[in-house]
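Why do we bother with a discrete structure alphabet at all? Because it lets us treat a fold like text: something you can write down, compare, and reason about line by line. To make this less abstract, here is a complete entry for DUF4878 domain-containing protein. Read it the way you would read a sentence in a foreign language you are learning: slowly, and without expecting to understand everything at once.
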Amino acid sequence: MVHRSLGLLGLMLMVALVSGCGLFAAGPGRTVEKFLYALEAGKIEEAKSYCSSELLDDYGRKLTQQFATVPANIQARGGIKATEVVEEQIVGDLAQVVVRVRFGDGGEEVLAQSMIKENGAWKLAAGK
């Protein structure tokens, strides 16, 4: 029994160490999806946490104002029913992501987003 408990403890420790190394960190496409769902839920501060420091420095107050109008627009379209990462191109610490968003009203939009890796996490970047 003690041997089995030590094995389980070792497995849990290994998972904790590997996840701390970023192996299970969200990729750029998943980050865009999390950003969209945060906006849909009206979680403005969470949505801003997915933005790069440069984007926040350049447009912080304006982003907050713009993000505040998004939840109502999404709800007017029946909410987000599904997202799909259509394309994800990663070159070093930069990425380009294309995401298809399907709404409850049957409509869809395809969004292209530039991404940058900051401190090991993918963040939305200003398009260049």
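What the structure line is telling us, in plain words: Residues 88 and 106 are 24 Å apart (CA to CA). Confidence is low (pLDDT under 50) at residues 2-23.
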